[in-house]
Amino acid sequence: MKNNVVKVALVGNPNTGKTSLFNELTGLKQKVGNYPGITVDKKHGKCKISETLTAEVVDLPGTYSINPQTLDETIVLETLLNSSGESYPDLVVVVAEVENLKRNLLIFSQIKDLKIPTLLVVNMADQMERKGISMDLEVLKAELKSEIVLISARKSSGIENLKKEIENYKNWNTEPVSNFLDKIDPDFFSEIKTVFSEESTYKPWLLITQQQYIHFLSEEQQKNIAFFNPASEKIKKYQHKETVFRYQKINEILKKAYKVDASKATDLRAKLDRVLTHKIFGYVIFVGVLLLIFNSIFEWASVPMDLIDGLFANLSDMAKSNLPPGVFTNLIAEGLIPGIGGVVIFIPQIAILFLFIAILEETGYMSRVVFLMDKIMRRFGMSGKSIIPLVSGTACAIPAIMASRNINNWKERLITILVVPFTTCSARLPVYAILIALIIPNQRVMGIFNLQGLTLLALYFLGFAAAISSAILLNKVLKIDNRSLFVIEMPNYKLPSFKNVFYEVVEKTKAFILGAGKIILALSIVLWFLASNGPETFKNAEQIVLTQQDNTGLSEGELQKKVASYKLQNSYIGYMGKTIEPVIAPMGYDWKIGIALISSFAAREVFVGALATIYSVESDGEDTGTIKQRMAAEINPATGEKRFNFASGMSLLLFYAFAMQCIGTLAIVKRETKSWKWPILQLTGMSALAYIVATITFTILS
Questions:
Q1: Which residues are CB-neighbours of 523 under 8 A, at least 6 positions away?
Q2: Per 3-state DSSP, what percentage of the chain is helix, strand, and coil (rounded to 5)?
Q3: Which of 50, 152, 170, 466 has a CB 3.0–4.6 Å from the CB of 126, allowing a cystine?
């Protein structure tokens, strides 16, 4: 049978369960890409509606209205107006939340005016009784001139009914909820319809009022729009009237079909909010949650990490033992396997971090955290909306910087963009994890907390403190006077959906592996080549070592180690490292660490993989050891002590806490600010700060 494809756009306010529905429909058949020409992410996936129909579902950014205030909301407007665009939907599914139906119906009524087949999905219908809500579905359908489906995305109920309705989308009523524009000024809107000759009067009205956000207009449309001035008082007055008329109609409809009896509600939300957002206990609970997260990152991940570490060390040994000697075997054993191992070893910790973040978001607690932290941030001259990017930055600075688009004031947004990279992202986690494991004892504090976990928590707090301190400085330098209001919706508390958490962890972990993995693997091969080749002194290493007096009488194994070490020092990468060694020596680093620092500019995670490759090349070929063992065994020839001791380890930890070691972040900053000025200043300032702090730390501790 012929399988037809239909394009479905999911639209809705934030916190309506739109993404939960998207996950329920598409499962693991989803991808993350960019909207054409824009760095905003879009989720899209496929869903089998019936034997003959497949849906391509796009999860559009959450928005309260089709009139955009931020860049994310612009995506919704452009998608629904650009009928020739690749993302233009055959039908729209508007997701509403049963407790906030009045607010959710505003965007529904706007989309209905565009005469696109539109379906209303009311989510969290399983909570109606508990919330004291009753609804006359048939009356609501008649008044809204739309089919309505009740679902619970969290409990997977109503999904089959939704699929049946989607299959029947060509028979949906496309009439507007009401003729809102005719109530305002029939003659004016009749003129608009004549000029544009569109099927819907509402589309040209949006083209006129929102033209600064629209980038797809044809020459003819641009000429037509020139007849109308969107900044005129008349246009602004009509926009206001439109919103008023819509809410009047929505109130009228809901009085007939929707009732809330608070006396029947059994809601614990208010009681929980009083505790979780308390001016004292709220912060205590938040710190406790952070302690649990970072303690778990070390406690739960230690066993699988050790297994992975040992597995890749054994794989390198097996490759050298079973493959014929030669360049290809060396590439596999010393380049590819250690490079891949440098990525895979951190999957348990990354997955645990994303697991906790997903659970906090799913339960609704993350919004309370944002609300709590806003009270502090206002004292430092930052917008409350800046908290969202700063909190998001604990996962990755790149999407966090994109999240700053919800800040209307340009200067406040710029400050947020510049300070977000100080927050400790998941890319720093591999570096922190390996260094903490090397220099901090694995012991308990007060019999409960792991000292290594507390150290990691302190580094997270340090990053956040650096971001706030930088914001205070930038606030004074850039003379920010205007401040935008902070508005955040507190979603209902709910049990986390296993599916949503699972998909989030899988997607984010996969992005880490594929994103960082490609870079690390490519650099591992380059580093292996540079470390395995060199000029004449490299090629004649064995003869040179044999002629040195202090090497006489050595065993074969000791001699081979000497040869391997001499080769590495005289390889191409050795010369590069020796060149920069005088610059990094004050921080306590040798030329090998210097190579890892340079390599990790592509991505911080590369640091460990680069050292793994360098140390593997330097080995005598019999036992590569694990990454931890090789780093722990490294000796400083000048002092005879461990290279990674407390002084050098703390110096490295603080260097990575402050340094801008991420070329991807710089690229995004350039794109968001549309100038190289800010990323260059950001790179220079953060690098200088990292160098000074690391040098002072090493000097004091050594």
A1: 339, 599, 602, 606, 609, 610
A2: 65, 10, 25
A3: 152
Cβ(31)–Cβ(43) under 8 Å?
yes
- If residue 673 lies in a helix (H) or strand (E), which one and from where to where? helix 663-673
- Quick count: other Cβ atoms within 10 Å of Cβ 509? 20
Is residue 412 in some structural domain? no
Answer whether residue 515 shows pLDDT above 70: no
Count other C-beta atoms under 10 Å from residue 348's C-beta.
21
Residue 417 dihedral angles phi and psi, to the nearest 5°? -60, -40
Boundary (domain end) residue, out of 220, 237, 263: 263
Q: Which domain holds residue 662?
A: 522-701
Inside any domain, residue 584:
yes
> How wide is the angle at C-alpha 398 spanned by C-alphas 394 and 403, nearest 5°?
80
Question: For the segment 361-391, what is each residue's pLDDT rounded down to a tens digit?
Answer: 788 887 777 777 776 776 766 666 677 677 7
Q: Please give the pLDDT value at position 267.
A: 56
- pLDDT of 71 reads 66
Mutual angle of helices 498-532 and 18-26, in 10-degree steps: 70
- The one-letter code for the residue type at 380 is F
Share the mean pLDDT of the chain.
79
12-52 pLDDT, tens digit per residue, is 988 788 888 888 888 866 665 443 444 455 678 899 998 88
Q: Concatenate the DSSP letters of all residues of 193-250 into one string.
A: HHHH--S-SHHHHHHHHTGGG-----HHHHHHHTTS-TTSHHHHHHHHHHHHHHHHHH
Higher pLDDT, 692 or 548: 692
**pTM: predicted TM-score of the whole model, two decimal places:** 0.57
- Tell whether 359 is covered by a domain: no
Given 233, 263, 293, the domain boundary residue is 263
For residue 36 the two structure tokens come to 């054409």
Average pLDDT, integer, range 642-666: 86
Mean pLDDT, residues 260-265 taken together: 60
CA nearest to 125, candidates 92, 93, 168, 159: 159
**pLDDT for residue 264 is more than 60:** no
Q: How far apart are CA 55 and CA 358, in angstroms?
A: 27
Given the DSSP bridges, would you call strands 118-123 and 148-150 parallel, antiparallel or unpaired?
parallel
CA angle 173/175/177 to nearest 5° reads 110
Residue 72's nearest CA partner among 59, 61, 80 is 61
On whether the CB atoms of residues 439 and 650 are closer than 8 A, the answer is yes
CA angle 539, 528, 573 (to 5 degrees): 65
pLDDT in tens, 89-103: 999 999 998 888 888
Residues 191-213: tens digit of each pLDDT: 887 777 777 788 888 888 887 77
* Beta carbons within 10 angstroms of residue 204's beta carbon: 22
Give residue 627's identity as a one-letter amino acid code. Answer: I
E strands in 377-529: 444-445, 449-450
Integer Cα distance of 555 and 561 in angstroms: 10
Do the domain assignments include residue 342?
Answer: no
> How many folded domains does the chain comprise?
2
